Structure prediction request, 287 residues.
Amino acid sequence: MQDHRRVEILMEALPYIREFRGKTVVIKYGGAAMEQADLKAVFALDVILLRLVGINPVIVHGGGPQIGALMKRLGKEPRFVGGMRVTDEETIEVVEMVLVGKINKEIVGLINLHGGRAVGLSGKDASLIRARRRLHRMPDGTEVDIGLVGAVEAVDPAPIRLLEEHGYVPVIAPVGVGGAGETFNINADLVAGEVAAALGAEKLIHLTDVQGIADADGRLISTLPRKEAERLMHAAVIDGGMLPKVESALRALEGGTAKAHIIDGRVPHAILLELFTREGVGTEIVL
Prediction:
């Protein structure tokens, strides 16, 4: 009976493997999935499996807590305005050191250790992510300059495509480059949405530390149309760290990504459950 169930599971995955073969899936990697040791290896194996069945995973990662931890070790107190990190010249050095020099290489190393072939990129490599300074809008409408925090102007898909075509998994740190060569710290959720749009990805998947998006009564929403998402954002039901994830999903969909998902990265193999089962997991966002 158990063998029969195993075969059923494999056969259930088959139409999805066929549908997504040759397509790109952008995964925003963060939260517990990136921080818990037992989930790190699971994530790496999921990515490798996708690549082996002919799907092209592209990873975009964050690293806010790790940046804050290193700043404190260096005796520099992190400052935030409306949830956005104030990023001066000294802070951007720490941001780049942590995101590009540490976290990016750890993820690349993890995938390679388990038999994959990953290559790390920052937005500065081949001018992959061109950015401009982003002012932060306060609730009263005034705009505040919070330093070297960027908004994505353009993503060049060519370097990512080149790696995909040769069987590599691109792992992208959310650091962009300005017109004068300056470095910008960019919200990783928003970078993932822009990358998915630029690639015309089949899917954008955000790994989070919640089941998905909840309604005002705390119930999980399995499918969320844009108009309803905008209503929930306006009513502050969707707020805090979930806001850029929803904005990212909508940007990806407007740019040509077929589907966007927000799923619980604390669940082992959540990516495979989302891609290869009928029920899926988490919240699907649609236009």
